[in-house]
Amino acid sequence: METKIKIAIIEDNAMVVVLLKQVLTELNFDIVSVVDNGEDALIEYDLYKPDLMLVDIHLNGEMTGIDVVSKIKEKTDLPIIYLTGDLDSDVIQKCKDTFPSAYLKKPIDLEQLKVTIEIVLSTFTKQKKNTDKLSAELGGMTAYNEELSDMNTHLIAATFRERGLKKELENSKALIELQSKKIHDSINYSLRIQQSIIPTAEVFAEALDKHFVFYRPKDVVSGDFPWLMKKDKYVYFGAIDCTGHGVPGAMMSMIGNLLLNAIVINGIECLTPSEILANLHKAVVQTLKQDAEGNKTADGMDASLCRIDYEKSELLFSGAHLPMLFLRDGELETFKGDKFPVGGMQYRNRNTYSDHIIPLKQGDKFFIFSDGIIDQIGGEEKMKLMTANLRLFIEENGALSMSDFGLAVEKMFYEFMGINKQVDDVLLIGVEI
Predict the structure, then answer these.
(1) H or E stretch including 46?
(2) Among 88, 47, 29, 48, which Cα is nearest to 64's?
C-alpha cells in the first residue's frame, strides 16, 4: 500500500484553510495537522513529523511563520512553502534566510499551487536521495574506520608502538573530520557570497516586469549566473556560462560578474552588448594573465547578452557561442551568437562580436540560456534534450504567461531528467514585452 505524503497547514485564515484542504485532499495528500499559531505548530510538528509544510508568514499568537520555520530547520531539513500576501522586502529577506522551497502569493492560484507542490516534492526527493546516498557512503567509511579501530584495539595491547598507532589513527580521523567540516563550511559560505552578487527576484521584476529565471546549479555553487544592470534608459541582462562548474566555475563567475559591472558602470557612454563582450574578453585575458608567455589556460565564459531600450522599443542582442530564441506571433526565430568565447588566447585577438538589432512590439517573447539545459541527458532514450526540443517546447507553450512558462519549463526539465544526474549548471531566462 502506497504511503501518502503528510502535509501540515499553518494558516490563520479559515477560508484559505478550507481551500487548501479541498485541493490537497483531491491530490490524495494526507493532511495531518491544521493550526493557526506558531506554538501549536511546533507541538504538532514533533507529533506528526509531516513531509511538507505550508506556512503563512503572519499567524495568531506571538510567533510568526518565519519563527516556526527557523525552529524546525534547527532540527531537520524539510520542504517549506510560504503563503503570503506580504511582499515587503525585509519580510521576504527574512523568509529567504530560512531557505524555503517556494513562495505562493495570496490569493492562491490553485493550478500554481498544484504545480508548485509537485515541483517542490520532486526536487526535495531528488536532493534527499543524493543526501541519503552520501550518508550511506559516509556510514560505510565510518564502519570501515570502526573496524580498523577495533583491530587496532587488539593489536595495541601487545606493544607501546601499537598504542601509538591507535592514537595516531584517532588523531588522523579527527583531522579528516575537521577538514571535511571546514570544506563544507567554506562551500556553504561561498554559496552565500555568490548569491549576494546575483540579482534578486525583486531586482529582475523591477527592471523587466514580465519575465522568469530558471536557475539550477549542478553543485552547491555554480559556474553559470544571471546578470542584470540598469544604466540611463537601458536595461542590460544576460545568461553567462563560465568554464567548469562547482567551486572552479563559481570563482570564474565572481570574476565575470565583477568585470561586467565595472565595464557598464565605468563606461563613459552606454555600450552595446557586442562592445561589452569585447571589453569583457580583454578584461578576462588581462585579469587571468592569459597573454603572459607560457600561460596556456583557456578559462573564460560563453555569454548571451541583451540590451532593451523601452523608450525606443528596441532590443540589441550579442552572443559569445550562445544564441537567443525570439518568439513573435507564434513564429520562433534563432539569433546565433558569434563563434568566439570570452577569454582565452586560442583565437589570438580575433575575438569579435556583432549586435543584432530587433524592433520590439507588445507580446514579443525572447529566451537566453546556457548550454546546461540542452545538454541534459534524459528521456526514454537517454539522449540530450537538444536545442530543437527546447524550441519545440517554447513554440507549444508560447501562449503562457512568463510566470507560468517558468513553472512549466522547470517541470519539463525535471521530468525529462528523471533518475539521471544533472550534467551541468542550468540557466534559462525568458522576457516578454
Answers:
(1) helix 38-48
(2) 88
Give the CATH number for residue 227. Answer: 3.60.40.10
Question: Tell me: the pLDDT tens digits for 217-255?
Answer: 988 778 899 999 999 999 999 999 998 666 777 788 888
At 191, the pLDDT band (50, 70, 90 cuts) reads low
The residue that leads in pLDDT, 262 or 137, is: 262
Q: Looking at residue 152, what is its pLDDT? A: 59
The answer for 299, left when phi > 0, alpha when psi is -120 to 50, beta otherwise, is beta
Same domain, 115 and 67: yes
Contacts 24+ apart (CB under 8 A), 167-176: 173/145
Same domain (yes/no): 110, 246: no
Q: What are phi and psi of 308, to 5 degrees?
A: -105, 130
Q: How far is CA 120 from CA 69, 117, 235, in A?
A: 16, 5, 32
Confidence band of 132 (pLDDT split at 50, 70, 90): low
Q: Which of 123, 158, 179 is the last residue of a domain?
A: 123
C-alpha span between 101 and 131 (Å, rounded): 16
- CA separation for the pair 305, 355 (Å, rounded): 10
* AA letter at 345: M
Strands 314-320, 301-309: pairing is antiparallel
Domain region containing 205: 198-432
Q: 243 lies in a domain?
A: yes
For cell 579528516, the residue is 176
| CA pair distance 55, 103, nearest whole angstrom | 10
d(CA 345, CA 299): 9
What distance in Å separates the CA atoms of residue 8 and residue 117, rounded to the nearest whole number? Answer: 13
- Cα dihedral sign, 140-143-147-153: positive
The pLDDT assigned to 392 comes to 96
Long-range contacts (CB closer than 8 Å, 24 or more residues apart) made by 120-123: 120/52, 120/79, 120/81, 121/5, 121/51, 121/52, 121/79, 122/414, 123/414
Q: What is the pTM of this model?
A: 0.59
For residue 1, the 8-state DSSP code is -
Does residue 162 sit in the same domain as residue 110? Answer: no
